[in-house]
């Protein structure tokens, strides 16, 4: 079930604006999912489709979010989408994200391989002009926090206006490597994106849309695609390494503490 998040977003993306408004109205009602209260109106105010999915999954878990979505789709007469969601097959298939899994003996060899990649290390600074209005960047542009408080910032073609995302200032090519600290975080998304990605409206962060990412949601790690691939890790991620070889079309993610993922 954990692989459903991108599919739920695709379902909501296929709703007309009128249907999406109706969908959000039903989300506020109690017992749309038997025995469960609705989502508070204040939480749903001004939310786009991607944040609506996050709210559903956060409150009802993945299986509940699926059942709730099907119930509401039935109420608004979108039986075609009910069938699509009912028949969704979450089995993983080939993905463009290359998640490395070593079979080498000993942590020493793995760490030596990781050290080679650090030869391509780059210094990434986050770009405040791309940051969603709910995000706060540190003064040095090295850290980002989601505050759930929307700030009054000027809009621009660079800024994400619906999904809580931010890009780095630097445009990178060739081979490069960087690390992101995620220790103690309960939800995050890390990866790379094409400079040309769409920043407006609801966005699905999959390779066909120009995003190569992994994330943590509800204690589950996934490589995001359609469908996504669950990552069965031996320990919680504290720091994620990201290596890109542009010429080979390769994006690799590492658990920096163990040199694999």
Notes on the protein architecture:
This protein has six helices and ten strands; from the N terminus they run αααααβαβββββββββ. By secondary structure, the chain is of the alpha+beta class. It folds into two domains: about 5-85, Death Domain, Fas; about 105-125 and about 170-255, SPRY domain (Jelly Rolls, Sandwich). The protein has a four-stranded mixed sheet with strand order 1-10-9-4, with no helix packed on it. A hairpin with a 4-residue loop joins strand 9 and strand 10. The longest helix is centred in the first third of the chain and has 27 residues, at about 50-75. The two termini are about 20 Å apart.
- SS-based class: alpha+beta
Taking strands numbered 1, 2, ... along the chain, how are they ordered across the largest sheet?
1-10-9-4
The tally of beta strands, per DSSP, is: 10
User: Roughly what percent helix?
Assistant: 25-40%
Order of helices and strands: HHHHHEHEEEEEEEEE
């Amino acid at each position: 079930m954990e692989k459903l998040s991108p599919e739920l977003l695709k379902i909501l993306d296929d709703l007309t604006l009128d249907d999406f408004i109706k969908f959000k109205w039903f989300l506020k009602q109690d017992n749309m999912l038997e025995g469960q209260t609705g989502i508070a109106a204040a939480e749903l105010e001004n939310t786009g489709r991607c944040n609506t999915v996050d709210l559903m999954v956060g409150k009802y878990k993945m299986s509940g979010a699926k059942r709730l979505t099907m119930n509401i789709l039935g109420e608004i007469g979108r039986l075609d989408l009910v069938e699509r969601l009912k028949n969704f097959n979450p089995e993983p298939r080939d993905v463009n994200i290359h998640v490395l899994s070593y079979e080498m003996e000993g942590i020493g060899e793995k760490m030596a391989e990781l050290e080679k990649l650090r030869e391509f290390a780059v210094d990434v600074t986050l770009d405040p002009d791309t940051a969603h209005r709910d995000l706060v960047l540190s003064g040095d542009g090295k850290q980002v926090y989601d505050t759930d408080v929307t700030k009054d910032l000027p809009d621009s073609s660079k800024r994400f206006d619906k999904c809580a995302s931010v890009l780095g200032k630097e445009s990178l090519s060739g081979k490069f490597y960087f690390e992101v600290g995620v220790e103690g975080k309960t939800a995050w998304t890390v990866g790379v994106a094409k400079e040309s990605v769409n920043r407006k409206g609801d966005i699905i962060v999959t390779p066909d849309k120009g995003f190569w990412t992994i994330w943590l949601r509800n204690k589950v790690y996934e490589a995001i695609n359609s469908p996504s691939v669950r990552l069965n890790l031996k320990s919680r991620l504290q720091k994620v390494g990201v290596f890109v070889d542009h010429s080979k079309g390769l994006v690799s993610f590492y658990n920096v503490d163990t040199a694999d993922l």
